[in-house]
Every structure is written in structure tokens, then in C-alpha cells.
DNA sequence: CGCGTTATCTACCATGCGGTAGATTCTACG
DNA sequence: CGTAGAATCTACCGCATGGTAGATAACGCG
């Protein structure tokens, strides 16, 4: 259900047994949190999916909260790595150094497209970000920071897209547009997860960007999934 | 914390004791679900806020699920009534029969504005709609229907707004635009609930509508709250 | 006022929870 | 191959949960 046990790539880090188990736990946790949210998933649930006892799980994580934030931060790292690799790949292909500002928007759309095809992560973020709204939630601060970071990054991308559009876009505020495109992506995912036929997330996002004066038609949408 | 006990309006239905208790329970439930979501609120929590025992609560509702959907459907009824009253009031004022299509969009914006001022309902819908994403959730079907209804209603409003705009808007699909404006409202609320200073929901919504070619400047935004 | 109905309480149940303690099995390295 | 240390298990704790049973208290109508 998660990953095969012996899929070790040629030799470099032989990955001790404990590390493998830890990974298995984190994979299971990510799946289950996506399926049913944080609060209603028990440590025993996660442990069972990882073929372990819940006491065994607690050998690796100090508690349920620890498991959650560890998993989320790990997701972030993978996301950032994937984005950087994508940028490097593009730069190599075009013999030109692309930046985050250049590819941020197309990356966002690519992520949504990936979610729409292999629907694992969308429910995770939909459920968790809503739960984490409560200040006492263990992931509250994580999500505040995540959204702040996302807005910052996309503000840069938006400004860049405005500047390089043909004709250049002058009437819109990149800060507001960044928050708006994030909101749109989130809201679309809610409707889509509730009823996948009700809405075409990618088309809607691209339409929105075109409305802003940005032309996404030439984008090579990042096709690979996120991690 | 909820309503005062003797706020009975002049006489018509003297409201039996049981009915009053039932109302008190529903009010408490709505508050708590908004504060902490459905799953993590216990019947004892709700009962305590309603100054009753959890067993006493179960005299009125057959179970936790029953309580949830009863409360949500009740909210819907109040929402619809408030909308109709708003329409009638406008029609009386202008001596002209307004319809839902005429006021739908301004109503939506008014609701968001109300949420932004008195932040009770926004967290409720943010948390519940995310939880209800899971098909086994007791409110899953409720939310599917709610969103479908919302899209239908706003599609009409959108078409009307496009037609009556100056100049009339031709390039946009009312169906897609309806889903988009709902998504935008939802997504903005997530960011706003997480960090109220991060985003101006009303300004963002109005900006979006203007971008569509709709001019909301003349709207008399519905100022009163919803329930 | 009397009394049936309704509302509410106390007490209980089985279940599942997060977390801990300590015994036991397995791993991997010298 | 032996053994220290890591990994994992069994067993338990206290607590909260949703729900039930039945006794008791309050209401409100005749």
C-alpha cells in the first residue's frame, strides 16, 4: 500500500531498519491524515498501517503531535527539493538560469494538476489546514508559516508574470493577486474533493490567470508528482 | 454567552420549555462546532454549554450525527429566510420586484463581510466543509448538496450580472465563474481565519468581480448578520 | 390542585484513546 | 559467533467518548 520493502536504490545509504520503519510510519501517517484528518486518526491506526504496534510507533515519535509536525515538515522539504530540481532541469534544458519567480505560478498549477490526477495530497491539505485553524492545534503555526511563505513566493512570481506579460500588466497588485490565487486553489480543491465532477481545477486556475492578463499557454506544466 | 433566557418577542408562540432547551442545545452546538470542529467536540461539551447533562441532550437528539445535521439544516433555513427578507425589503424600498439572481452576488459579499466583522460562522464552515470531505462523514451529503445549490444559485446571479453590466460581459462562463467565486470566498476564509491580518476578504472578492467586468460599486451591501 | 407527560438527572457500560513500563526479540557490527 | 544496543511487543493506566437504563423532578393542562 505504501512502498515496497526492498526498493533500495543502488547502494549509497543502506538505510538501517529503524530508518525504514520510521519512513513507513511517516508514509502511513500522511495517507491516513489525508483520508480522515488528524484528530480522528489514532496512533493505533497509523501503527497498524505501518505493520507495527502503537507502542512501537512511540519509539520513533514522542507523541501524536510530534508525528504530525514531523510529517508535515518532511513534506515541505520534499516539495522544496522537487521545486528546485524542476528549476535546475528547466535551466539545463534552456541553457538559462530560471528562478523561483519564473516558474512559481506554473509550478502551483502543476501541483494542482498532479493532485487532480493522483488524489492523495489534496484531501490532506484541505482537512489539515481547516483543522489547524484552531490556535491550539499542533499544526497551527506550521500552517500560518506555510501560507505566509506561499504568499511571499507567489507574490514574486506574480510580479514577474505581470512584468513579462505581453502587454505588461499594470492594473493589479501582486500581493493581492498572490493571496487570491492561493485562495482560489484551496477553494477549488474543497469543491473538487467533495465532488470531483463539479469543477475543473486546472482550467479554472488557468482561466483566472488569463483574466489577470497572464498567458499560461506556453507553460510546460510540471507533470511529475510532488513526492 | 448564547441568548438571554427571557428574550421572548411579544407573545405569539410561548415556546415550551423543551423547545427552549432544544434551541439552547443547537446554539451551543453551532458555537462549539465552529470553535473546534465536529469530531473534536463531545456531546458533553455541547451539553455543558447548554447547562444540561449529556444524557439530557440525548433526550432531544438521537445521537451526535443527528445533532450535527439538524443544526446545519436549521442554519440553512435561517439563511434562506434572511435572504428572502432581504429581497423583500429591497423590493419594497425600490418599488420593484427584485429576484435572487439580482442580489445573489451582493448577498454573498455581504455574508463574507458579516463573517469578517463578527467571526462566528466562518470557522464553522471552514472546518466542517473540510471534515465533511470524507464520504463517511455525517455531513458529507449535506455539504455536497449545499455546494451544488450554491453553484446553481450563483450561476444565475452571475449570468444576470454579466447581462446587466455596462458594457455587458460576454467572454465568461457563468457556471465556471460561480464555482470560482465560491472557491475564492472559501479560500480567503481559510487564510483569514488562520491570520486575520493577512488578507482583506471583501476587497479581494470585489476586486475579483470587477475583474470579471461586474461593477459592484453601487451595491448596498447587506449589512445585517445572517441569523 | 392533581396528575400524566415531559424533561432532566445519576449511574453505568463498552470502547477507544494517548501514553508508559518493562520484558523480549532482533540486528548488525566487531 | 557473541553481544551491546536498537527495535518491537505485551500489558497496563487513567481518562474521555457515545450511548443506554431507569429513577426522579419539573412542567403545564384540566
Automatic annotation (TrEMBL), chains A, B:
<keyword id="KW-0678">Repressor</keyword>
<protein>
    <submittedName>
        <fullName>Transcriptional regulator, TetR family</fullName>
    </submittedName>
</protein>
<dbReference type="GO" id="GO:0003700">
    <property type="term" value="F:DNA-binding transcription factor activity"/>
</dbReference>
<dbReference type="InterPro" id="IPR036271">
    <property type="entry name" value="Tet_transcr_reg_TetR-rel_C_sf"/>
</dbReference>
<dbReference type="InterPro" id="IPR009057">
    <property type="entry name" value="Homeodomain-like_sf"/>
</dbReference>
<feature type="domain" description="HTH tetR-type">
    <location>
        <begin position="19"/>
        <end position="79"/>
    </location>
</feature>
<keyword id="KW-0804">Transcription</keyword>
<dbReference type="GO" id="GO:0000976">
    <property type="term" value="F:transcription cis-regulatory region binding"/>
</dbReference>
<feature type="region of interest" description="Disordered">
    <location>
        <begin position="1"/>
        <end position="20"/>
    </location>
</feature>
<feature type="DNA-binding region" description="H-T-H motif">
    <location>
        <begin position="42"/>
        <end position="61"/>
    </location>
</feature>
<keyword id="KW-0805">Transcription regulation</keyword>
<dbReference type="InterPro" id="IPR050109">
    <property type="entry name" value="HTH-type_TetR-like_transc_reg"/>
</dbReference>
<keyword id="KW-0238">DNA-binding</keyword>
<dbReference type="InterPro" id="IPR001647">
    <property type="entry name" value="HTH_TetR"/>
</dbReference>
<dbReference type="Pfam" id="PF00440">
    <property type="entry name" value="TetR_N"/>
</dbReference>
<dbReference type="InterPro" id="IPR039538">
    <property type="entry name" value="BetI_C"/>
</dbReference>
<dbReference type="Pfam" id="PF13977">
    <property type="entry name" value="TetR_C_6"/>
</dbReference>
